[in-house]
């Protein structure tokens, strides 16, 4: 029966279980260095391990967090006491996931536009990641907004790469998180962002369909529909929520179990307040939750500051952020 459920569907549903969201802790080597630098934390294997161990050993984290996205190095690392970080997550009831793209490169002939790389050898890497305990994957595409960008070529090349990534992930028994990020940089309006997000999501779902990706066994990770950071017209939380929910209702099939937003450089408070407003405005079949990196980690990282004596306070800060965002998801009335 074509509609019978697959074990991957259950994993996708578990990632958006009521009141739960995802911790994105998959910063690549250059990105984690960028986060550590302002705090004078040296970026080396030991400091990265100590930081991720601090996050993952937070008592009670599993009450609010369903999954954690890791970087390749972290999936292989062991904690101070010799337990694998993956096992620490599993004991908390948190599913380990893995970022599998290799970042972006310039799109030839399209200045200012990017394509995401990492398809070469992906089938083999996915098999290995599954063996190491990963149960879901993530691939991030980025789209820059202006009056003329993104080009249709950029949207299409990234959509087809996302679709290949997603189909290869499902083949390997992993739930793909499909992340087409519309960047906040620029002075575009809320309406322009909605327009770009709509075209992008339509193209992405057409590509997913062309590649026969099982929609029940994937999650979408979009940016919220927001005005650019340099836009003169600000938008209220309610306006952001209305535009975001309308855009998603028009473009995301009902078979997708959940939509997990990225935070994308919003402050932690903004991200949580807007997620609350989105859930209050929610009308749609899918769960609307979070897969935040910066918005979940910011206060925890600055509290930790690379010092062992700050671990308990850093964990308190992470648990607080996780609880706040869980409450945002629970603000939904229907
Ligand atoms: P931010 O929430 O910091 O945008 O990170 C989410 C993420 O995983 C980006 O790929």
Task: Give an account of the 3D structure.
The chain is of the alpha/beta class and 334 residues long. The protein has a single domain, classed as Alpha-Beta Barrel (TIM Barrel), CATH 3.20.20. It contains twelve helices and ten strands. The protein has helices at residues 7-15, 29-36, 45-56, 72-76, 85-91, 122-131, 152-171, 190-210, 237-251, 268-281, 294-304, 311-330, and strands at 21-25, 65-70, 95-99, 104-106, 114-116, 136-143, 175-182, 219-220, 258-261, 287-292. It has an eight-stranded parallel β-barrel, surrounded by seven helices. The radius of gyration is 19 Å and the shape is globular. The two termini are 31 Å apart. The mean pLDDT is 97. The chain binds 1,3-dihydroxyacetonephosphate (13P).
Salient structural properties:
334 residues, 8-stranded parallel beta barrel, binds 1,3-dihydroxyacetonephosphate, two-stranded antiparallel sheet, alpha/beta, TIM Barrel, 15% strand, 12 helices
What's the helix and strand layout?
Elements: H1 7-15, E1 21-25, H2 29-36, H3 45-56, E2 65-70, H4 72-76, H5 85-91, E3 95-99, E4 104-106, E5 114-116, H6 122-131, E6 136-143, H7 152-171, E7 175-182, H8 190-210, E8 219-220, H9 237-251, E9 258-261, H10 268-281, E10 287-292, H11 294-304, H12 311-330
Parallel strand pairs: 1-2, 1-10, 2-3, 3-6, 6-7, 7-8, 8-9, 9-10
Antiparallel strand pairs: 4-5
Helix pairs in contact: 7-8, 8-9, 9-10, 10-11, 10-12, 11-12
1,3-dihydroxyacetonephosphate binds at residues 24, 26, 140, 179, 262-264, 292-295.
